Amino acid sequence: MVERHLELRHWRAFVAAAQAGHFGAAAEQLGISQPALSQLIRTLEAGLGVALFDRAARRARPNQAGAALLPQAQAVIAQADLAARTGAAIGRRGHRAIAAGYVGSSAFHPQFARLIRAIGGARPAIKLLLDQCSATVQVRNLIEERFDFGIVRAPLPTLDPAIASLTLARERMVMAVGAPPAGRARSPWKLASFADRPFVQYLQQPSGGLRSLMIGACQQAGFEPRIVQTVPQIATMLCLVGAGVGVALVPASMARFNVPGVHYLPLEEAVMTDFTLLYRRSDTAPALRSVLRIARGIIDKTDLSK
User: Fold this and answer.
1) pLDDT tens-digit map of 76-94
2) How far is C-alpha 110 from the geometric centre of its chain's CA atoms?
């Protein structure tokens, strides 16, 4: 019979150790000391009345009993995490609180400020909790109900059918350079004019993202971009451009980010990116529905027709 004093932390310790195959690595993953993790597992084994690991050669592999128990323990933790996320989402709805993610480049688009300002002025009041993260993370957090909506750039990542999208704005991409090529200062440039320049690039996402847009645009222009640096943040990218590391294809609204030494050149090609809001189709929380009404109200339809 399982002892009543077994808690979720004991199951987390067991699952972490079983997956890592090493008590030290599992302890580091959980943010506790190795002796503390070992004690949690010993308590679990004592409560169950069976050893769960073959402890040999500084490794900790699940024995037959541990391997049989692991799927059930994982299910216990998954269900507990789901309950916690669901409870947090219910709590946000009850307090008209909204948790949202956004990609870094979106904060420089005028529609971002309009949306945040309008949400701040909503009545009844909405408490907005913002977290900057990648589009991939936003989609995962939406599915897991950690976020109520997200703001991303097109091309969009692969979306679960439960996730809907609302395009808020569309804008051109421009070329950020440290020193403009000789010749025209303001007239548009062909993308192929930069084929021999080194590029500073966005991190690769599992799907979608500005990296795939940039590579596709260059390929359509007839060349493969020579990537010399990859960065997680578009602000860092522009700083590297200003330092002379390379050029970068960025949304036109990034020109609002005044980085010394960076010039923004228009392109002949219409390389476009959409500014998009993501949300769960099934979410009927009044605060989210208010946000969607606000978002639809600030859309400039002439901008989307470009």
Assistant:
1) 888 877 777 777 667 676 6
2) 21
